[in-house]
Amino acid sequence: MLIGRTGIATMIPHAGTMCLLDGVLFWDQTSIRCVSGRHRAKDNPLRRAERLNAICGIEFAAQAMAVHGWLSRGVGRRPQAGYLASVRDVKCQQGRLDLLEPDLIIAAELLMGDEQRVIYQFVLDCSGTEVLSGRAAVVLVVAPE
After folding, report:
1. Domain ranges in the chain?
2. Between the CA atoms of 15, 140, 55 and 105, what dihedral angle is there, to the nearest 10 degrees?
3. How far, in Å, CA of 88 to CA of 86, rounded?
4. Looking at 4-8, 11-15, 43-47, 93-97, which range is the least confident one?
5. Distance CA 45, CA 38 (A)
6. Are 23 and 8 a contacting pair, CB within 8 Å?
7. For residues 133 and 139, what is the distance between their CA atoms, to the nearest angstrom?
8. What is the mean pLDDT of the chain?
9. Residue 118, SS3 per DSSP
10. pLDDT in tens, 23-36
11. Which of 28, 97, 123, 132 has a C-alpha 20 to 30 A away from that of 37?
């Protein structure tokens, strides 16, 4: 693992149980692959009525995108915040994440972007089976110079 949960927590605004990623397995300038077992956690804040619906996987993917943005921008101007503007072509192959026993692999690929917005393609995988996929547009807020 390249970066663990503690390191990830310094890169995203989510703290405590809301930090959903356990580690970064790989990243380069256009993609990232993360791992998480937080879908099994009883204290996962996205659970409702003891369930974690698969659509909540979008938040796992959004956090992977945020980590990628942090890593790929190096020491340059990093955004103060990023806001999920839209998701498209979302396909859920499972109804619930909490019923999946193995870890999730969260992959995100940067399709296009600039300092104000980015578009990623994402896939959540569990033991080689696609659980959730789609595209996300993120609006970035950069501090004025």
Report:
1. 3-141
2. -70
3. 7
4. 11-15
5. 10
6. yes
7. 20
8. 93
9. strand
10. 999 999 999 999 99
11. 28
pLDDT at 17 over 60: yes
Range 3-141 has CATH code 3.40.630.30: no
Instruction: Give the torsion through C-alpha atoms of 88, 90, 96, 102, to 10 deg.
Output: -110
Please give the single-letter amino acid code of residue 93.
Q
| Terminal Cα distance for the chain, rounded | 35
What strands, in cross-sheet order, belong to the sheet with 117-126?
Answer: 3-4, 23-27, 31-36, 104-113, 117-126, 129-141, 81-92
CB contact set of 98 (below 8 Å; sequence gap of 6+) = 39, 40, 44, 47, 50, 51, 52
Contacts of 50 (CB under 8 A, 6+ apart): 98
User: Which residues lie below 8 Å from residue 78, measured CB to CB, with a gap of 6+?
Assistant: 69, 70, 142
Tokens of residue 34, six digits? 């993360």
pTM value? Answer: 0.95
User: Which SS3 state, helix, strand or coil, does residue 18 take?
Assistant: helix
